[in-house]
Amino acid sequence: MSALAHVPTGQSAAAPPPSARRGRHRFLPYLLLLPGAAWLLLFFALPLVQLAAASLYDPSGSLSTGYALTFAFGNYPDALAAYWPQFVRSFGYAALALVLALLMGYPLAYAIAQKAGRWKNLLLVCVVAPMFTSFLVRTLAWKTILSDNGWFVGVLRDVHLLAPDGRLLATPFAVVLGLTYNFLPFLVLPLYASLERLDRRLLEAASDLYASPVRAFRRVTLPLSMPGLVAGTLLFFIPASGDYINAELLGTPNEYMIGNVIDSAFLVRLDYPQGAALSFLLMAAMLAVVFVYLRRAGTEEVL
Amino acid sequence: MSARFWRWLADRWVMAVALLVLGYLSLPIVVVAGLSFNRPSSRLSYDFHEFTLDNWRNPCATSDMCDAVVRSVQIGFLATAVSTVLGTLMAFALVRHRFRGRAGINVLIFLPMATPELVMGTSLLALFVAAGVPQGFWTIVIAHVMFCVSFVVVTVKARLAGMDSRLEEAAMDLYASEWQTFRRVTLPLVLPGIVAAALLAFSLSFDDFIITNFNAGTTVTFPMYVWGAAQRGIPPQVNVIGTAMFAIALLLVLASTLRGRRARRAALPVAPAVGGAARRRS
């Protein structure tokens, strides 16, 4: 099919080459797609419909007595009224972590793409290396690093950045730090991919035309890295705002994010209508953020 | 002078920040490795107390942890096998064929990667409960295949799209049958992509917590075990597993890098034209 496009037209007067045989399968693509598409429809799309239904169940039902679908749209305002602080916190923590991640990730991606030379591959491996080991075990390691008896807290106390009885664990700081750490590679990799393609001669041209380094960065490097920047921030922000592992392991109930609430609605309180309504609100909020962001950033092709 | 000075500073400054950030990224791994040699002072303590080799000598001292690791590996293999086959077939259809409904299929593949895990996990739970399916080992496998397929499609697609289709045309012009062409030319060329996709799928499955948590019933995978143990006190052997995982993954990466380098070196003098063409496309 696509192969035909490469056949030089000058030779097509002769008998068609055997490679033209490829074009005859009309149903083959559908056969190839069928199992995978069926799986995704059955176990990704259909569950979303079921979740939507569950979010409209009569909230007076329970798992043991059964739920009735009464289109109780009131579940949504009720859930939001009860848990809006966790919603705000989720997006606040994720946004804060994103700012930190950008401050750290941009120089890192830039250095690997433009300055690392033959060390490029080694540094890239270092970026993904944290993902080689378990997410939860890594997050627990921060409990050791930020521990009240650890050297890090000790140093901060000695230089009076932290009160003698001050803590890092079980604070918003620890949760944001954990979020930043856990999702930083997702930001760095697409950013690296964009910056790697950056033609250095453009920067030389900018400086030959008397642009200061800051100006060259703002007018050349930054715009050219936009696709990676947009993809990276989304890949960072979506899992970070839906995460509840960091809040659970590094924080306290005062730091709980919306994920903690949804987890307990489904698995502890067994309040399915509320849990489903919160899940849908999370997805709607996320889609809104993504949509607005993509419009503002003006990049249609993200992935 | 000032322009050159600024550039000198910018060069050093960016690299210095980059190395600091890499340190931040690597610190937890160092800590995990260190803690795997720790004898904690109490069950709930996360601080380094005393050096010991005991954790490495009998990593299965807490037997339910090793059961959980074995279960995670089983689930990982099953989910990888199914999702790699399904995803590879889809990638072939998308790159090699023109058909109606392509846009819809692309959306169906993209959406699971953009949807929060929380939403996928809870919606599957809602479905299984509504359909009366008991949750356990198999519902975890179903869920893992679901979220791995998209990543397999994307990975294999990238490899297929970068492939020089003239090699296949050449085979067919030399009267190789379609099957022979696929078996002898296409498959060997795509295989690295498929292997990479399978490795990615396995690591996604092995490490998944959020979706598994909603669909596991009473089945315990390794991440689920760590989650539960975080409340009761973490056995130090968890860090042995974490360190071993890291070492295995690192070895795999090193091996593939070395193989790739050797293959490139070997290929060059024999078939410079083919190697050149392939590289130009990729």
From TrEMBL, chain A:
Organism: Micromonospora costi
Xref: InterPro entries: MetI-like, MetI-like_sf
A single BP term in Gene Ontology: transmembrane transport
Family: Belongs to the binding-protein-dependent transport system permease family. CysTW subfamily.
Protein name per its UniProtKB record: ABC transporter permease
TM segment ranges: 30-53, 91-110, 122-141, 173-195, 216-238, 276-294
Compartments, record wording: Cell membrane
UniProt entry tagged with the keyword Transmembrane: yes
